[in-house]
Design goal:
alpha/beta, five-stranded parallel β-sheet, 14 helices, 18 strands, globular
Length: 450
């Protein structure tokens, strides 16, 4: 850990940058009543308040839980030519307001993040606007040289959209290009994430949409992901699994030693195709919402500790776009500002153990994607902290910081709210209100992460 003028020494009168006091700290799988001292961006002391040093700034966390900074590994921050939907400031500010200190941005932007030049452009734009930590996944690169250069530049992995025409063709002809990418990822210890759907045909309304994006098209895609992981030995991650049968196949493969992980989303846990039929385009997403029993089965896997990650798949669009006809309206649900309130409500109700929430939203994302010194509260670790307060309120998309002012969770009563968000020792959310400026965040590069 880098030393500073404020390093805590027993018996000294040193002053640190920040301390959080009077909180219930999730520390080493237990709840510790006390506080945390932070200096120079790192945690320097965890303990009872009398044992903490003086600080330039003190946050009173009475009636709050202090968690490791949450990590969302599936976020579409848009920007560049899609900045009318979301930009790096509004997207990362939404993350801060939702209690997330670190996010992983997806590559399907305009231009796509699949070449070194486009990654540099995106990182440059994000550096001046982000308020939390931002890492990047790269898309399917045009050449092997591009893939190697993207690795050198510090991407945290690759993202493959299996419904992409080029990918479908590659799969049907033996997956030569995919295997090449997986071998490059394996060589560098990176993970390849898959949007696992292999659809055919077109749709014109909700029923035909559900037919085209049926359960089998996801199950078959997941089987392909597992097969590629077995063939190459690479690390594979399956995004937003919505089908219980597909999740079962991944769990079975993991038990057989295949290096594959998967995530689920809050909307696939708490919403169903009944909500899609009721709300229409507002609840349109990919993969689509599924039958009620399927959602219940996925939630049982979460409670059983068999799911690796919960990710928001924050996919913002304008309200006007979502008002188009069902066929024309783009798929996607904004989730950065609703994920933690929805899940912590389940904790308060006794439906989800707190240690599982922390594992799903902080510890596992950090381990799976290699976010060093993050995901845990430990002395010497990064001072990324999420403070949650018990507050009863109703979700209102009009209050979102995201440009996407719509939500299928509109009107849902929740029992918790992100109260303070601390990123590398900087307080970016104070009592539920943003206290940050564009550019105060950081661009994370895997090659020099600390």
């Amino acid at each position: 850990m880098e030393k500073s003028r404020n390093c805590v020494q027993e018996g000294s009168e040193a002053v640190v940058d920040l301390k959080l006091v009077n909180g219930s700290i999730f520390f080493r799988r237990k709840i510790l009543e006390g506080g945390i001292a932070v200096d120079n961006g790192y945690i320097v002391k965890v303990g009872k308040e009398p044992n903490l040093p003086e600080a330039d700034l003190t946050l009173d966390c009475t009636d709050c839980f202090i968690l490791p900074g949450l990590i969302d590994v599936h976020v579409h921050l848009r920007d560049l030519k899609l900045s009318y939907k979301e930009d790096f400031f509004t997207g990362t500010a939404a993350a801060a307001k939702g209690g997330f200190t670190t996010v992983l941005d997806m590559p399907n932007t305009i231009p796509p993040t699949n070449t070194p030049e486009n990654l540099k452009l995106k990182a440059y734009e994000a550096r001046g606007r982000a308020v939390v930590e931002v890492g990047f996944l790269a898309g399917l690169p045009p050449t092997e040289k591009d893939a190697e250069e993207l690795v050198k530049l510090g991407v945290f992995g690759f993202k493959v959209y299996m419904d992409n025409k080029e990918v479908k063709t590659d799969i049907s002809s033996g997956s030569k290009k995919l295997k090449q990418l997986l071998n490059i990822a394996k060589k560098h210890g990176l993970r390849v994430a898959f949007h696992a759907e292999l659809t055919s045909g077109d749709y014109w309304d909700i029923n035909s949409f559900l037919t085209v994006h049926n359960e089998e098209c996801e199950v078959k895609a997941v089987e392909t992901c597992i097969r590629l992981a077995k063939l190459t030995g690479a690390k594979v991650h399956v995004c937003h699994v919505s089908i219980f049968k597909a999740a079962e196949k991944i769990i079975k493969a993991k038990r057989e030693g295949v290096n594959v992980t998967f995530e689920v989303t809050p909307h696939h846990l708490f919403l169903t195709e009944d909500d899609l039929k009721k709300l229409g385009s507002i609840a349109k997403t990919l993969p689509p919402l599924r039958k009620p029993e399927n959602a219940r089965q996925l939630y049982r896997l979460v409670r059983g500790g068999l799911v690796d990650i919960i990710a928001s798949d924050h996919a913002p669009h304008t309200t006007q776009e979502k008002k188009e006809s069902f066929k024309e309206a783009p798929p996607g649900i904004p989730g950065l500002e609703t994920t933690l309130p929805l899940l912590f409500t389940e904790v308060i109700k006794g439906n989800l153990p707190l240690h599982l929430l922390v594992r799903l939203l902080a510890q596992n994302p950090a381990v799976i994607y290699g976010f060093k010194k993050r995901g845990y509260i430990e002395e010497g670790g990064r001072a990324n902290l999420t403070v949650v307060k018990r507050v009863r309120w109703r979700i209102n998309p009009e209050d979102f910081t995201s440009k996407a002012r719509y939500s299928p969770f509109k009107g849902v009563e929740v029992l918790a709210k992100p109260w303070f968000t601390v990123v590398s020792g900087r307080v970016v959310l104070t009592k539920g209100e943003l206290t940050c400026k564009p550019g105060e965040g950081a661009i994370l590069l895997r090659k020099n992460l600390r």
